[in-house]
Amino acid sequence: xxxxxxxxxxxxxxxWGTASGQETMAGYLxxxxxxxxxxxxxxxxxxxxxxxxxxxxxxxxxxGDPSKFETEAAHxxxxxxxxxxxxxxxxxxxxxxxxxxxxxxxxxxxxEEMFLFSQHGQALLEAGDTTAPSxxxxxxxxxxxxxxxxxxxxxxxxVSETCAACxxxxxxxxxxxxxxxxxxxxxxxxxxxxxxxxxxxxANCASCHGAxxxxxxxxxxxxxxxxxxxxxxxxxxxxxxHGQQGSATGAGVPCxxxxxxxxxxxxxxxxxxxxxxxxxxxxxxxxLSGLELQEQVLRAEAAGDRARRAVQLLSEAGEPIVxxxxxxLTVETHLQELLVQAHALDPEAVxxxxxxxxxxxxxxxxxxxxxxxxxxxxxxxAIPVWIIGLGGILLALRKRRRLGKPEPDPSWGIGGGIxx
Length: 420
Known about the structure:
Elements: H1 5-15, H2 35-38, H3 40-48, H4 50-53, H5 58-62, H6 71-74, H7 85-96, H8 99-103, H9 112-117, H10 119-126, H11 135-139, H12 159-167, H13 181-187, H14 189-195, H15 205-209, H16 222-227, H17 231-239, H18 241-249, H19 256-259, H20 272-276, H21 285-316, H22 322-341, H23 347-403
């Protein structure tokens, strides 16, 4: 369908106030560029994207002659029109694999080899499966927004939602693969941190699987993948038997064995021993060690709770608690260290932290006990005061009652009365 001169005039009249004459699509002179006369819906989205801001125009991706206002004449030369998925990937890579070009924007270059390393790339480019995603499925086509824009489908808070658009659809997921990963992640520690507490550093799909070279991490890769965020835990893990077993035999116990993958969670402290028994016999050294670790951690947590209550009691009593607060912060630090150190499965190191927590908690608790004892003493001393005060009130009321009683009439005495 050809764009008529009247439609061009109408669009010019409506849009003239927004034209700024900049050499970008965001403000390109409308009377000089025919693409936006017909494709107004794409223009509105494209103007908000990063490509428009960098001076990229319709013809850079689609070709054609924007100086022609007749459809056939505009769609001439190297005009490509709508691109297929594989063609779109090649087009995007023509710029995004250029290292000098991407470096100026602080963007990591993306190569075809990287994309082909992923199952997405293999399915699309090698197997010709057009249900597999291309660049536009994740980034958008015309309204391509930067990662920092909350509206962007690759914003940290929306990446998992973008992945779920395909991975919850059985028609787009290879047979035999699950489609409930999103539901598991939403309920996980990572999902709750991101969605409820808005911690954008919490793990989303791309954090563990990668972006352009997306793949499930292998068993031996999992500790390093998790360790990108949990660095201290990773170091401690490799000091323990689970990590050392992996380095020696290539078949270690990965993080997901205890914490799950998409449904990542922190196991309850009271179930540490039971968790160990899922792999080890109850009477085995490993099983007994797991139960011992559970007792140590629970003992430390109980001591920490006592210290927390003691600080609260001192605060409510109006006592100065600067020293106790410092001790309590140290207690909380040791408790965090304890949870990290537990991954080394070293009873001696754990026991040392438990003793520190217990010692500091005892110091705080002793001060609170003294203050609480004084409070009870003051309450007990107040009892006699209340008794004396109450007795005085009763005597005063009795005296007042006597004073208010009328004097007897002498005429009613002995020998008196009526007729006397």
